[in-house]
Amino acid sequence: GKPALALQTSYGGRVGLASLVPMWRIDNRPIYEYQAYTQPPVITAFAPGYIQASAKLTPTLALRADFWVIESHAVAARLTVKNLGKAVELSFDLVCFFAAQGKELKSAPLGQSGALTVSKVGNLNPVLLLENGRAQSSNTLSASFKIPANGQVVARWVHAGLPTSSASLALAQKHLKQGWSTPPRRLTQAIPVIETEDEEANATIAFAYQQLVQSFLKPTASLPYASFVSTRQPGNGYSARG
């Protein structure tokens, strides 16, 4: 079935699809499809490189999911589950799927690091790292939690892509160790909130502001001054011909 939450990328056009799907298990019942949630995820905030969703796994387990593109080669997620009822045991799986040119790319555990690595993706060897997680299979990282009554747990993960798996793992570990809880306020402050009586108009205005703000680029090694581009989408940026 179709997952209610999934982080997807094409690595700037290097692959057809890379998908990371969070899956929860309560009493061995998987929760990842829309119909499995008591309240399916809805978007509650977004900004350039950042999006937040809220949902209910069960009537007493509330989920907040924060996805944040930390830098051009790393994306992170922070999934917070608050328990409004009695103590409960919860399992978390992070399932990955990668495909290019109509074929699935193989992923595998990366030694004893508790991470997964993906076979060559263009000029990258991406790595997926789940905090306090373990490699459950060739495409799944897992962690277990016990949430006390009126308590909460947090599942954090980082996906990084650099030319070697060791460099990707080091980058992912670096961002996990930084202990971020929410993205910098500047991300959510970058877009003014404009509301009308028309919800579709509100969404159009908000998305337009996001497109505008993320079109401004910081200085780089080849472009020493800040600049802008006409469009900036996930499928842009990589040339197979160099």
What does it look like?
The protein has 242 residues and is mainly beta. It has helices at residues 165-177, 185-189, 199-214; strands spanning 7-9, 17-26, 29-31, 39-47, 50-58, 61-71, 74-83, 88-100, 103-104, 107-109, 115-118, 127-130, 134-137, 140-147, 152-160, 216-217, 227-228. The strands form three sheets. Strands 4-5-6-7-15-12-11-10 form an eight-stranded antiparallel beta sheet. Strands 1, 2, 3, 8, 9, 13 and 14 form a seven-stranded antiparallel beta sheet that branches.
Class from secondary-structure proportions: mainly beta
Note the total helix count: 3
Query: What's the total number of strands?
Result: 17
Oligomer: single chain
The portion of residues forming beta strands comes to 35-45%
Global shape: globular
Could you give the order of the helices and strands? Answer: EEEEEEEEEEEEEEEHHHEE
Mean pLDDT across the residues is 86
Q: Could you give the topology of this structure?
A:
Layout: E1 7-9, E2 17-26, E3 29-31, E4 39-47, E5 50-58, E6 61-71, E7 74-83, E8 88-100, E9 103-104, E10 107-109, E11 115-118, E12 127-130, E13 134-137, E14 140-147, E15 152-160, H1 165-177, H2 185-189, H3 199-214, E16 216-217, E17 227-228
Antiparallel strand pairs: 1-2, 2-3, 2-8, 4-5, 5-6, 6-7, 7-15, 8-9, 8-14, 10-11, 11-12, 12-15, 13-14, 16-17
Quick summary of this structure?
It is built from three helices and 17 strands. By secondary structure, the protein is mainly β.
Question: Any descriptors?
Answer:
single chain; 44% strand; 242 residues; 3 helices; 7-stranded antiparallel sheet; 17 strands; globular; 8-stranded antiparallel sheet; mainly beta
